[in-house]
C-alpha cells in the first residue's frame, strides 16, 4: 500500500525533475543533489525519496504520449534519482562509520572500566594491607615500649640485686674474718701461751703438766674443728672424696646438732652416678634451703628427699615452719630472698626447673627437677598437698 509523500517536498522535486529533463543530456545533476539535501533536512529516508520520485515520474510520463521520448525520459530521470539519493547514502555511510567508531569507543571504555574496577579492587586490598601493617606496627611499637620498660625495670632490679649480693658477700667475709679473729686466733694465742708456760713449768709435777697438755690439745682440736667447718662451708672435701650421700649425711648431722631441727634424708644409691656438677648443685641447694629454714621458718622438722623419675633427678625439701607468701617478687628487697634466688640460679644453670610452694602459716615445699641427660625439664608446679612432715 502506497503512502503519500510529504506535500512540501513533492512540488519542488517535480519542478526540479521537469527542468532537468528539458535541459540537454550533458547537463549536470546539481539540482538532483540539492533535492537530496532537502530530503535529508526534512528527515526523509531512501524509501520516502523513492516514493516522491515515483509520483513525480508518473506525473511527467502521463503528460508525454511518445514511447521513445518516455524511454529517454526514464533513463535521465533514473540518473536524477540516483544523484538525489547520493546525500542520503553518504549520510548513512557516515552514520555507519560513526556507529562503528562509537561501538569501538564503547568497547574501549568498557575495557577501561573493567581495568579501573580491577585497579580499584587492588587499591582496596592494598589499603587493607597497609591498615593491617599499620596496626601491626602500632602493636609492635606498643610491645617494644612495654619490653623497653620491662628491660629498664629488670636492669634496675639487677643493679639492686648486684648491690645486695655484694653486701651479702661482704657480710659473709666479715663473719668469717670475725670468727677467725675471735675464735681461731684467740684459741691459737691461748695455745701459744700455754705452750710457753709449759716450757718453764716444773717438770717434777707430772700430773699438773699432763692436765695442761690435755687442755692445750682440746683447744687444738677445737681450732681444727672450726677450720674444718669453714672448709666444709666453702667446699666439703667429703663430697669429692666419698660422694653426695655421705656429704649430705654429714651436713645434716652437723645441722641438727647446731639448730636442734630434726632432719631426715631419703635418696637412692645411683645418685652417686650423677655428674660432679649435678651433685654439687644438689648439695648447695640443700645447704642453702636448710640455712633458710633455720633462719626464717621457725620449723622443728625438715625432710630432704631425692628421687629419679625418667631421665631426670627430682628433689623436694619440706619443713613444718610458718611459711611465707611466694607471690612476692623474686627480687624482693628482703635479704632472705637472696637464698631463693641463688638456688634458682644454680638449678637453671644446669637446665633444671625450680619451684616453691608456701603460704603464711603453712608448710613450705621446695622442688627442683634437673635433667640427667641434657634434657630441658619444665614441670608444672604441683597442686598444694598436705605437709608429709605434719603428724595427725
Question: What does this entry look like structurally?
Answer:
- This protein is α+β, with helices and mostly antiparallel strands.
- The chain has a domain at 236-392: Heat Shock Protein 90.
- The protein is 67% helix and 9% strand.
- It has 9 helices and 5 strands; from the N terminus they run H-H-H-H-H-H-H-E-H-E-E-H-E-E.
- It has helices at residues 10-22, 30-41, 46-62, 67-199, 206-234, 237-241, 244-259, 276-297, 336-349, and strands spanning 262-266, 301-307, 312-319, 353-358, 364-371.
- The protein has a 5-stranded mixed beta sheet, covered by helices on one side.
- Strand 2 (301-307) and strand 3 form a beta hairpin.
- Helix 1 crosses helix 3.
- It is rod-shaped.
- It starts with 9 loop residues before the first helix and ends in a 21-residue tail after the last strand.
- Mean pLDDT is 77; it is low at 374-392.
Summarize the model shown.
With 392 residues, the chain is of the alpha+beta class.
Please report the total strand number as a whole number: 5
Total of helices: 9
What fraction of residues sit in β-strands?
Answer: 5-15%
Q: Output the strand order for the largest sheet.
A: 1-2-3-5-4
- CATH architecture annotation of the domain at 236-392: 2-Layer Sandwich
In round numbers, the mean pLDDT is: 77
By helix and strand content, what is the structural category?
A: alpha+beta
Looking at CATH, which topology of the domain at 236-392 would you report? Heat Shock Protein 90
CATH class call of the domain at 236-392: Alpha Beta
Taking the alpha carbons of the first and last residues, their distance comes to 128 Å
Shape, per Cα inertia axes: rod-shaped
Low-confidence stretches: 374-392
Largest sheet descriptor: 5 strands, mixed
Computed over alpha carbons, the radius of gyration is: 60 Å
Provide the helix percentage.
55-70%
| H and E string | HHHHHHHEHEEHEE
- Assign the CATH superfamily of the domain at 236-392: Histidine kinase-like ATPase, C-terminal domain
Q: Please state the oligomeric state of the protein chains shown.
A: single chain
